[in-house]
Design a protein that fits this description.
Length: 420
C-alpha cells in the first residue's frame, strides 16, 4: 500500500473522530457538567435559604450527603454491567430522565425527611452516569485520544461545580419569591430543565457500539472496529463464560487494587474542597458572595486539569502527570489542616488543594481504562468498582472529616459583634 492510498484513510478517520466528538464527547462533557451542577446544588441551596426554610441542622445536612452516596455506591457496579449489555443511547438518557424528575421533586420539598428520600433516589439515578460515560469513551477512543478527552470531561465537571454558585446567586437576585418560590427552589427547577435537554440530546445523538449505531455508515463502522484492534465490542454477547468467572478474573487483576485505593484516597482528599462555600458563609460572608467565591477556585482547577490531560497525551506518560500535581495537592491539604484565620489563607489553601488534586482525576481514569483490562465487560466492572469504593468513602467522611456543625468561626463572631 502506498502513502497515497493511506492518506484518504487517515482523512476518513479524522472526519470520523470529529463526528464522534460532536456526539459522544459533547454528551459526555455536557452531562458531566450537569451532574456536577446537580451534585453541588444542595450545598448552594443550603447556604441560600434552604437551611432556614426547612430548619435543617448541620447533622441533618451531613446525612443528606451520606444518603446520596449510599444510593450512589449501591448502583454503580450493577449499572455498568447493564450498560455493557444494553444500548447506551437508551440507558443513559433514561437515567437522565429519572434524574430530571427527582430534581424537580427537590424544588417541592417541605421537610427534611423528603430530602432524605429524594437524595437517596438521586444517588441511585446518578450512579450510572460517570462510570458509564468513562467506559463508553474508553470503548470508542484510542490511547492517543483518550487523555485529553478525559480532561475535557473533568473540566466540564469542574465547570458545573463552579456554575452552581453562580446559578444560585443569579436565582437569589432575580427569582427569589417569584410565584411564591424561594431562589433555591428555582435553582433546582433550572437544573431539571438542563437535565431534560441532556436526556433528549443523548437519546438522539449518543452512539451505542460499532455495529449497532444507526448513524454510522459502513466505512465508519469498519474504522471503528479497526481502531478497536479488529474486535467488534458487541461480541460480548457471544461469550459463554459466566459473570462469576469474569468476576474471579477481575479480582485477580494486579492493577485493580492500586487503582481502587488510589481513586478512593483521591476523592477523600478532594472532599475538603467541596465545603468552600459553607466555610465562606460561616466566616461571615453573605449567601451571594459565598456562592461566587467558589467560582475562581473552579476556573483555576479547570485550566490546570485541561493542561494536565493534554500534556499526558502529548508525552504518553501518565505517572509524572499524577505525581507533580498531587504534590501541590498535598501542600494544599497541609495548609488546610492548620485551618486558621484569616479567611484569605484558607481560600488560597482551598485553591491549591483543588487544582492539584482535581487535575489528576482525568489522568487516573485514563490510565485505568488503558491498562486494567481489554475485556469490555470487565473494564466496565472495574471502572464501576473504582467509583463504588470512592463513593463508600463518602458514607462517613462528611460526618467525620468534613462535618457541617453550624458553629461560627472567630471572624464571623467578630463581624456580628461589630454590627451589634
Amino acid at each position: 500500500m502506498t502513502i497515497q492510498d493511506e492518506k484518504p484513510n487517515l482523512e476518513e478517520e479524522q472526519e470520523y473522530v470529529r463526528r464522534l466528538d460532536k456526539r459522544l464527547l459533547a454528551f459526555a462533557m455536557f452531562g458531566n457538567m450537569v451532574k456536577a451542577l446537580d451534585n453541588s446544588n444542595l450545598g448552594s441551596a443550603f447556604i441560600s435559604g434552604m437551611e432556614e426554610e426547612l430548619k435543617i441542622t448541620g447533622v441533618q445536612y451531613n446525612w443528606m450527603g451520606v444518603l446520596f452516596m449510599v444510593g450512589y455506591l449501591s448502583m454503580q457496579i450493577p449499572s455498568n454491567i447493564l450498560l455493557a449489555r444494553c444500548r447506551p443511547s437508551f440507558y443513559l438518557p433514561f437515567l437522565e430522565s429519572i434524574w430530571c424528575l427527582l430534581t424537580i421533586s427537590m424544588a417541592c420539598v417541605n421537610s427534611v425527611k423528603s430530602v432524605y428520600a429524594i437524595r437517596f433516589c438521586l444517588g441511585l439515578a446518578e450512579a450510572g452516569f460517570y462510570p458509564g460515560i468513562v467506559f463508553l469513551l474508553g470503548t470508542w477512543y484510542t490511547k492517543k485520544e483518550l487523555g485529553k478527552r478525559m480532561a475535557l470531561l473533568n473540566l466540564c465537571g469542574a465547570l458545573g461545580t463552579g456554575l452552581s454558585g453562580v446559578v444560585q446567586a443569579v436565582m437569589l437576585k432575580t427569582m427569589d419569591n417569584v410565584w411564591g418560590l424561594s431562589g433555591w427552589r428555582w435553582m433546582f427547577l433550572f437544573d431539571a430543565l438542563v437535565t431534560s435537554i441532556l436526556a433528549w440530546f443523548g437519546y438522539n445523538y449518543l452512539p451505542d457500539y460499532p455495529t449497532t449505531t444507526s448513524w454510522l455508515n459502513k466505512s465508519e463502522v469498519a474504522i471503528a472496529i479497526q481502531r478497536g484492534d479488529g474486535l467488534d465490542v458487541r461480541d460480548i454477547k457471544k461469550e459463554h463464560s459466566s459473570r462469576w468467572d469474569k468476576l474471579r478474573i477481575l479480582t485477580g487483576n494486579k492493577y485493580l487494587y492500586p487503582f481502587i485505593s488510589g481513586w478512593a484516597s483521591l476523592h477523600v482528599a478532594l472532599g475538603g474542597c467541596h465545603v468552600l462555600g459553607i466555610v465562606a458563609k460561616k466566616s461571615g460572608y453573605d449567601a451571594v458572595t459565598a456562592n461566587l467565591l467558589t467560582t475562581p477556585d473552579t476556573l483555576i482547577t479547570m485550566v490546570v486539569s485541561l493542561c494536565n490531560g493534554f500534556i499526558s497525551d502529548r508525552l504518553q506518560s501518565r505517572i509524572w502527570c499524577l505525581l507533580v500535581p498531587a504534590s501541590f495537592g498535598l501542600l494544599g491539604c497541609l495548609l488546610l489542616s492548620a485551618f486558621v484565620q484569616p479567611f484569605g489563607f484558607l481560600y488560597f489553601a482551598f485553591i491549591v488543594t483543588h487544582a492539584g488534586l482535581g487535575s489528576t482525576t482525568s489522568v487516573v481514569m485514563t490510565w485505568a481504562s488503558e491498562i486494567i483490562t481489554s475485556n469490555i465487560e470487565l473494564r466496565a466492572m472495574s471502572i464501576a468498582a473504582m467509583n463504588t469504593f470512592s463513593s463508600m468513602m463518602w458514607t462517613w467522611t462528611p460526618l467525620v472529616l468534613w462535618p457541617v456543625t453550624g458553629k461560627m468561626t472567630f471572624k464571623q463572631t467578630q463581624r456580628r459583634n461589630d454590627r451589634d
